[in-house]
Structures are given as structure tokens and as C-alpha cells.
């Protein structure tokens, strides 16, 4: 009776520990590119490892790749410790590799090897955030490179770029903590007025991560992020100051349409509310009496009246 000897993939996927789960995730991702039905496989209802082993043993092109190249090209665990458990990084990794594809597609590197960066077109929906993020990086490295040293170098470069990219996160730290939801709402309103075209296709921020995902777009430089954050924070602080003043009361005034139009333009130009513009003008005039005195002087001159003495 012939004995069935498990292949290296079956042995590794059946082992215990984090590496087993990692191998299963990237194998699932590879297999889903050839068989799209696997992208919707629910591991809670099916034996994922059994399904993958059966798939690999069919000796399809993807199965051969999984047993051979994929297993050989998994970079050491310490090289992927920087990968996070969130949606934001998934989008960032996709964009990072996409940009490499644009800039280095069919480009000869210094080592004279042809680099064609490959991305999956189908992502298993039941892969969790970190498992999916790690599998995406593993897939890219295994599919794009044949030398481990090259794969490790590219992985290091990606980690370095991620760390540089997230340095600007601290610019938005004031949006966390107490009243975080209100702060984000304030920031959202500010952005709708400041950059309406850029924000039209986005939903209102529901979390701090949503905000990061929005600002991860390449059009936003660090300087731009800093400017928007500072201006929005000023508006938030002004709102807090108004709320803390018990002597303020709401009043209604009738203004001409022309004056309202001017008020709106000033509000938009300086990123202040109508009330803030009016308050600044009144306080400034009460202190210096520049415009009212000038207007009264001009009127009295036309009427032939003498200037009132103080």
C-alpha cells in the first residue's frame, strides 16, 4: 500500500503558530486570483486549510507556485512586524505598490533585473486587517522577485516609507481625546468650505482612521496637512472660547443682501464664522473708532455741520 507523504506546504500549514496562519493567508490570496470563488470563502463555515491543501494538490499553476516559489520567498517574520492591524495601511500599501508599478514597470534596476511589481485583483473578504495586509505584502514580494535579498530590501524600503509617511500623524493629534467627534465634525465642516472639490467624494469622518485615510492621498503634502490642521484648530478653539463666555447672547439684525454678501466673502476668506467677523469689527471699532468717526466726519462736512467736541 502506497503511503501518502505530505508536501512542505501541507506540513507548514498544519503546524501551529503565527507562521502557519501567515502561509494560509497568502496562499488563500494567491489561489483567489485563479479561482475567484475562493475570495468569498467563509473560513467559519469551511475548513480553510483543507480547502487550500486540496487546491494546491490539483497541481494547477497557482498550486505549483504556492508549493515552490511562495514558500521560498516569505521574508523573515521580523521584516513584517511593522505591519498594522488597520484598514488605513491596507490602502497605503496598495497605493505604494501601485506607484512602484507606474514608476518602475519594465525598468531595469542597477542589478540588471527586470522588475514588474504585481498586485492581486481579488482579495478574500474574510481576511482580517493585519492578515490581509501581511498577505498583500507577501504576495507582492513572492510574485515580483526571485531573490530573497531583493525582497527583503524592498520590504525594508516599504517600512521606511511608511514610517516617514506617518510622521505627519502628530499634526492631527489635537483631534483625539475629549470631544473627538465634535472636533472631527468641526474639521469636516472646515474642509468642506476650504476644499469642496477634493472632499465631495468622501463620507464624513467617523473615526480618526477615516481622517488619516483621507489625508493619505498623495495630493496632500506635509505642509498642506499642517496648514489645514492649524487653521481648523483655530476655528475649534474660537468655538470653545465662545462657549465658555456666559455673557454672550444671541441677537438678530437685519442686513441688506449686499452687506450679507460682503460678510460671507469675509467669512470664507478668513475662515471665520459670520458672528466672529462681526465681533472682530465691532470690537476693533469700539477700541479705535476709525471708520465710524471717518464716516460721521464726512457726513458733517457735506451737511456743513461742525465737528462735535468731546
- The helix-and-strand class reads mainly alpha
Into how many domains do the coordinates divide?
Answer: 3
Average predicted confidence as pLDDT? 85
Q: H/E element string?
A: HHHHHEEHHHHHHHHH
Global outline: elongated
Proportion of helical residues: 55-70%
Q: State the total count of DSSP E strands.
A: 2
How large a portion of the residues is in β-strands, by DSSP E? Answer: under 5%
Distance between the termini: 119 Å
Q: Please count the helical segments.
A: 14
Can you walk me through this structure?
The protein is built from 14 helices and 2 strands; from the N terminus they run αααααββααααααααα. It is an all-alpha fold and 310 residues long. The longest helix is centred in the C-terminal third of the chain and has 23 residues. The chain is elongated and about 105 Å long. The chain starts with 7 loop residues before the first helix and ends in a 7-residue tail after the last helix.
Amino acid at each position: 500500500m502506497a503511503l501518502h507523504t505530505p508536501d512542505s506546504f501541507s506540513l507548514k500549514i498544519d503546524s501551529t503558530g503565527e507562521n502557519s496562519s501567515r502561509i494560509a493567508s497568502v496562499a488563500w490570496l494567491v489561489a483567489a486570483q485563479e479561482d475567484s470563488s475562493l475570495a468569498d470563502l467563509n473560513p467559519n463555515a469551511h475548513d480553510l486549510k483543507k480547502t487550500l491543501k486540496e487546491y494546491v494538490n490539483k497541481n494547477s499553476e497557482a498550486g505549483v507556485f504556492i508549493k515552490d516559489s511562495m514558500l521560498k520567498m516569505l521574508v523573515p517574520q521580523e521584516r513584517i512586524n511593522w505591519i498594522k492591524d488597520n484598514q488605513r495601511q491596507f490602502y497605503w500599501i496598495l497605493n505604494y505598490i501601485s506607484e512602484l508599478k507606474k514608476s518602475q514597470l519594465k525598468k531595469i534596476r542597477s542589478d540588471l533585473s527586470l522588475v514588474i511589481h504585481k498586485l492581486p485583483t481579488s482579495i478574500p473578504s474574510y481576511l482580517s486587517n493585519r492578515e490581509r495586509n501581511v498577505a498583500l505584502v507577501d504576495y507582492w514580494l513572492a510574485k515580483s522577485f526571485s531573490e530573497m535579498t531583493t525582497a527583503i530590501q524592498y520590504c525594508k524600503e516599504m517600512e521606511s516609507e511608511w514610517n516617514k509617511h506617518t510622521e505627519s500623524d502628530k499634526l492631527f493629534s489635537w483631534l483625539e481625546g475629549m470631544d473627538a467627534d465634535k472636533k472631527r465634525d468641526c474639521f469636516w465642516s472646515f474642509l468642506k468650505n476650504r476644499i469642496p472639490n477634493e472632499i465631495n467624494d468622501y463620507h464624513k469622518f467617523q473615526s480618526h482612521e477615516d481622517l488619516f485615510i483621507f489625508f493619505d492621498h498623495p495630493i496632500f503634502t506635509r505642509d498642506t496637512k499642517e496648514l489645514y490642521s492649524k487653521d481648523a484648530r483655530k476655528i475649534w478653539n474660537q468655538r470653545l472660547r465662545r462657549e465658555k463666555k456666559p455673557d454672550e447672547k444671541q441677537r438678530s439684525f437685519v442686513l441688506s443682501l449686499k452687506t450679507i454678501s460682503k460678510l460671507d466673502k469675509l467669512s470664507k476668506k478668513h475662515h471665520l464664522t459670520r458672528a466672529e467677523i462681526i465681533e472682530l469689527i465691532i470690537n476693533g471699532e469700539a477700541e479705535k473708532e476709525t471708520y465710524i468717526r471717518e464716516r460721521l466726519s464726512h457726513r458733517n462736512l457735506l451737511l456743513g455741520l461742525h465737528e462735535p467736541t468731546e
